[in-house]
Design goal:
The chain is mainly α and about 450 residues long. It contains 23 helices and no strands. It is globular and about 80 Å long.
């Protein structure tokens, strides 16, 4: 069942649950088929315009899963027409029974049988959920979308990552389910605690963490779109699409290609519409990749060379600052910002990935000095939570075993980079260490700053 049986159990029962479940399974099958059939489009072609809508749809589902909306809310949002049709059919059946009553037809035995069967099926289904009985595993067929309640895969994982909302998310005010047993690892260990002026949970603040403590795999959690992307082998294709898009975007920004040239290959009418389409495409795809990278299983299938090249090319100060002026808080959904989160994911999980390859590529591309130089010019334009997230990336790098033995290789020969890190820490980060969780998530950063201070005799 799509979006998790536990959510559905808490909100629906009987025929209403069965109606919603039918919509849910249809949505799951449709989404999986669309992901499976997704091709690598020529950028700015008619096929690219279609892929923009598909990626937007998938990202919306992922965001709603992260919002942990109740079953009815998700179903209604994704397919209002289908929900309405089922509701109309249900009313039609009721009307038919009423007509039979007026004509004196006896339908009670049939209705009782049907009702009994439905009740029995529903009770059996819910009992199965409570008992958590695994589905028999076959060797030739992967689990289908119609049987997503339980999954026999129970590998250990080290995952607790990701925000429940994103900055500027359109789902930030949608209805959430009341507290129940979480279907994905809890974010209670987040390094950001809600401020004293807000008693409710702040999901933006919960997002900032490098403390991974869950034991659920991607197959155990209600994150089916990410699962479908991984199982259908589409993650590296999406990575290549994003990389190529940023290259083409750079050509347009640099004057090597005009918007008019791009317009001739698509069905888009004018430059304003094209610009909006490009912005939405990048944000949706960059956010989708971010959530994909939060899963260890996704990272294990990733092309590390292309990933680190993407990070290297897009840690661009000028583009970030220009976008900050144009987009406001939506800049935190652009590639220039999210590549920092991609890098953090790699180093948080580095012990379960190819540590040698990731470390060597990071050193070759001088990613740590570039990140520090990027932050030196942008940190004053960021909010508190974005600052913590960025410096957690540096902390995750500093926590790697290879960093302990190759510290100077990571930093390079430029002393100014180390001085810049110390200055940013003292000016922007130190004052934010107002609780234990933040100090814990930045412990490796604090250690390296103290080492640099000792090395150069700084106070």
């Amino acid at each position: 069942m799509f979006f998790g049986a536990r959510r559905q159990k808490h909100y629906q029962s009987g025929s209403e649950a069965n109606s919603l479940d039918a919509v849910s399974k249809k949505i799951a099958e449709d989404v999986r088929k669309e992901i499976k059939d997704m091709k690598h489009p020529s950028l700015f072609s008619k096929e690219w315009v279609v892929s923009c809508d598909l990626i937007e749809k998938i990202t919306k589902v992922v965001l709603m899963e992260r919002e942990d909306l109740n079953f009815e809310a998700i179903t209604a949002k994704l397919n209002k027409d289908e929900s309405k049709k089922i509701e109309e059919d249900k009313h039609s059946e009721t009307s038919s029974i009423a007509v039979n009553d007026e004509q004196g037809n006896d339908h009670s035995s049939t209705q009782a049988t049907t009702s009994s069967g439905a009740t029995s099926a529903t009770n059996t289904s819910l009992d199965d959920i409570d008992e958590e009985q695994p589905v028999p595993k076959t060797t030739t067929v992967r689990p289908g979308t119609a049987s997503l309640i339980n999954n026999p895969r129970k590998k250990k994982s080290n995952i607790q990552f990701g925000s429940s909302t994103l900055h500027g998310s359109t789902f930030s005010n949608t209805q959430k389910k009341p507290p129940t047993s979480p279907s994905r690892p809890s974010t209670s260990g987040s390094s950001i605690i809600s401020s004293s002026t807000h008693s409710s949970v702040n999901h933006k603040q919960q997002a900032i963490t490098t403390s991974f403590s869950g034991d659920q795999t991607l197959w155990d959690r209600d994150e089916y779109c990410i699962r479908f992307i991984v199982e259908e082998g589409k993650l590296n294709m999406l990575l290549r699409i994003l990389d190529e898009f940023k290259d083409e975007q750079a050509k347009i920004t640099g004057g090597q290609k005009t918007m008019q040239e791009v317009l001739t290959t698509s069905d888009i009418k004018d430059e304003t519409e094209l610009t909006n389409k490009m912005n939405k495409f990048e944000m949706n795809l960059a956010v989708l990749m971010m959530y994909s990278f939060h899963s260890l299983e996704s990272l294990q299938t990733l092309d590390m060379y292309q990933t680190l090249d993407l990070i290297n090319k897009n840690m661009n100060t000028k583009t970030f600052l220009d976008n900050k002026l144009k987009l406001g808080d939506d800049v935190y959904k652009t590639t220039e910002y999210l590549v920092i989160d991609y890098l953090r994911s790699l180093f948080v999980h580095i012990e379960k990935l190819d540590e040698s390859k990731i470390s060597n590529l990071t050193i070759e591309r001088k990613l740590l000095p570039k990140l520090i130089q990027f932050l030196e010019k942008t940190v004053s334009h960021m909010g508190e939570h974005e600052i913590i997230r960025c410096f957690e990336t540096i902390s995750a790098i500093a926590a790697a075993e290879t960093f302990q033995t190759s510290r100077e290789k990571y930093f390079g020969s430029d002393k100014d980079v180390k001085m810049a890190l110390v200055k940013m820490y003292d000016t922007h980060v130190k004052k934010l260490l107002n609780n234990y969780d933040r100090k814990k998530s930045l412990r490796s950063l604090i250690d390296i700053v103290n080492r640099i201070k000792i090395e150069y005799g700084l106070d």
